TrEMBL record:
Xref: Gene3D superfamilies: Medium-chain alcohol dehydrogenases, catalytic domain, NAD(P)-binding Rossmann-like Domain
Source species: Mucor ambiguus
Entry-linked SMART domains: PKS_ER
InterPro entries referenced in this protein's UniProt entry, alphabetically: ADH-like_C, ADH-like_N, ER, GroES-like_sf, NAD(P)-bd_dom_sf, Zinc_ADH-like
GO MF annotation: an example: oxidoreductase activity
Stored Pfam families: ADH_N, ADH_zinc_N
Protein's name according to its UniProt entry: Alcohol dehydrogenase
Segments forming domain Enoyl reductase (ER): 11-340
Xref: PANTHER family: DEHYDROGENASE, PUTATIVE (AFU_ORTHOLOGUE AFUA_2G13270)-RELATED, PTHR45033
Top-level taxonomy: Eukaryota, Fungi, Fungi incertae sedis, Mucoromycota, Mucoromycotina
Source species, domain of life: Eukaryota
Length: 343
């Protein structure tokens, strides 16, 4: 038996349609293609907040929440190549093996029925969906990596093809995906610029390797960015906000530039007109990534010894700790990932 935090019809906060409840669950013995993982730490994503606010597709209650975790292998199926004690990361997606264009099958993510989440003391997972964790990562850093790291990796490399000396703009710095995109692009030698409404977050991004940043609420922010570029132009934009700035991006972008959009948190429509078409600018949607890209992302993090930025850690698995993590993300005051230490 083990404890898990599940989505509930009973509210634990008036700000959310759904609440959380702690359940005691049983675990079946692993099938030949399955592995039991003792969860050490789990982390929160914006998706988990959207689920609780009923702003995500297909929400049903009763299932274990969250999709990101690091853990120890405790029991292996007959076909496993892992051993008890191996520290592993769990791929948060299902139904997408390797196709570069998109999922081969119906795509789903852990943390929403029918995919069991990882805000629990234990998880039973398909063995081909777990990968050894880089040794340089702490448990808290490792838990922060899966979904946001995968989303950033696909946007930065599979979609934008960012490389050394590229000028890159990453919007909304401070969130998990944006920070990983910054770290990944800096690692390969790109010149990265960021946007935020917080001067403090821009300064923190510069400390992580960004060349500079602008406040997206400033009407002259694109002119300021053009001055920072000193005659250069942006080749790629990694964006999770959407919104009205799309109409101004061509003024700082080179011919044939690429925009990878992985979210639209501003809730403002995107403008894509003949202005962008005339500059051969491409807009590419980007969501999560394949199992192959997940493995590539872990290898990349291991090679460059990238350490995820952890903003806040809550101790212990409980309704209170998980709800507190959700409330913090809802406030948008974090810089980095929010993690719950479980075991």
């Amino acid at each position: 038996m083990f404890s898990a935090i599940c989505l509930s019809d009973k509210q634990t906060s008036s700000d959310f349609k759904y609440g959380l409840e702690e359940k005691t669950l049983s675990l079946d013995a692993p099938k030949p293609n399955e592995t039991v993982v003792q969860v050490l730490a789990a982390s929160l994503n914006h998706r988990d907040v959207y689920i609780m606010k009923d702003q995500f597709m297909g929400v049903t209650t009763g299932g274990v929440v969250w999709s990101d975790a690091v853990g120890l292998v405790t029991q292996c199926g007959d076909n496993s190549t892992f051993q008890a004690g191996d520290r592993v990361l769990i791929n948060p997606g299902r139904g997408w093996e390797k196709d570069a264009e998109g999922p081969e099958n119906a795509f789903a993510m852990l943390g929403l029925n029918p995919c069991v989440g990882v805000a629990a003391e234990k998880a039973l997972v398909e063995t081909n969906e777990i990968f050894k964790c880089p040794e340089h990562l702490s448990n808290l850093e490792a838990a922060a990596l899966p979904l946001a790291g995968l989303t950033a990796y696909r946007a930065v490399f599979s979609k934008c093809g960012i490389k050394q000396n590229d000028n890159v703009l990453i919007t909304g710095i401070g969130g998990g995906v944006a920070l990983f995109a910054l770290q990944f692009a800096v690692a390969v030698g790109a010149n990265v610029y960021v946007t935020s409404s917080s001067p403090e977050k821009i300064n923190k991004a510069v400390a992580l390797g960004a060349k500079g940043g602008v406040n997206y609420k400033d009407a002259n922010c694109m002119e300021q960015l053009r001055d920072m570029l000193n005659g250069g132009l942006i080749r790629a934009i990694v964006d999770g906000a959407g919104g009205s700035l799309y109409g101004q991006y061509p003024s700082v972008m080179k011919q044939g530039g690429v925009i990878a959009n992985y979210g639209q948190t501003s809730n403002e429509p995107i403008t894509f007109s003949m202005y962008q078409v005339a500059q051969n600018i491409e807009l590419r949607g980007s969501t999560m990534g394949s199992r192959r890209e997940f493995k590539e992302m872990i290898d990349f993090v291991d090679h460059y010894k990238i350490k995820p930025i952890v903003s806040k850690v809550f101790k212990g698995l409980s309704v209170d700790s998980v709800q507190n993590a959700v409330d913090l993300m809802e406030s948008s005051s974090q810089f980095g990932k929010i993690v719950v230490e479980i075991n």
